[in-house]
Amino acid sequence: MNTSVAEAIPTRKITGLASDDLFDLRYVRAAHLSPDGRHVAYVVSATEDDREFFQIHLAGLDGGYHRVLPFPGSATSPRWSPDGRWLAFVGDGRLHVACTSSWTTAAPLTEEELTVQGLPSWSPDSAQLAISVLQLPAPKSTRRITTRHFRAEGIGFTEDLTQRIAIVQRAIRNLDLGAKQPWGRLMRENSPSPAAIPVPALIATGTGDTIVAPAVVRDFARRACASGRTVRYLSVAGGGHATVARTEAPAILGWIDARFAGQRAPSSCGAI
Questions:
Q1: Which of these, 60, 78, 58, 79, lies nearest to 68 by C-alpha position?
Q2: Among 99, 130, 144, 271, which is 20 to 30 Å from 69 by CA?
């Protein structure tokens, strides 16, 4: 083992091994080298509060750094993407992907009722992952045991399981979330109706917004105009999702002050 990796694992001198000492042992497993051979991700398991807990450790093979992947739960099965930009892992039974430039982890890529089994496998272009997933049945208050086919790791009796291979997109770009539940339902429930706006509205967007597409905002403003609403529409060249409210604050506050002063609201409906 590389010296920097070995030194990163807490150790203590044992003069006599007792039964309780077994719970203090830490085990290294599932090591995986980055594609360029300069970094390693590996799992360290330990017993905490009478249960086994897993953490992913990251280290440079030149001894330049060592860190623990910042994930609040139990993390296992690290796998580098072929381009080295991502690290897939299983966190609390769900598939996650961390960006290797910042080690930030996005939201889980699998649903809560699915449990990922084994190691994720990347596609050659680093865009997709193949995983084995189990769908566990809803717990029953009572159960008649008719088989001895039982697995640990929180899985239980295997005859009730549904297991399949799934292909998961690393990013949600180009996916139609409106057709995927519960996201489609949540988006519909949280989408305001243009016709339901009872007062004049100011709608601002930036052409550089990558979170809410400017075309979606413009379409909403046009539909509000078509419903007979008075709309002041601002399109800020190069503005981003987090910058428009700040850069356009004087215009926005001026528009609000004019409404409280009783001035007639201007309309951009003819130019949207």
A1: 58
A2: 130
Task: Write the class of the CATH domain 3-176.
Answer: mainly beta
User: What CATH number is given for 194-271 in this structure?
Assistant: 3.40.50.1820
**Amino acid type, 192:** P
The answer to whether the CB of 149 falls within 8 A of the CB of 159 is yes
The alpha-helical segments, DSSP class H, found in the chain are 3-8, 183-189, 214-226, 244-247, 249-260
Helices (H), 145-212: 183-189
Cis preceding linkage at 182, omega within 30 = yes
Domain ranges of the chain: 3-176, 194-271
Is 101:85 a contact under the CB 8 Å cutoff?
A: yes
Q: pTM above 0.85?
A: no
pLDDT in tens, 232-246: 999 999 888 889 999
pLDDT tens digits for 204-262? 999 988 788 899 899 999 999 999 999 999 999 988 888 999 999 999 999 999 999 99
Helix and strand totals (H; E) in the chain: 5, 14
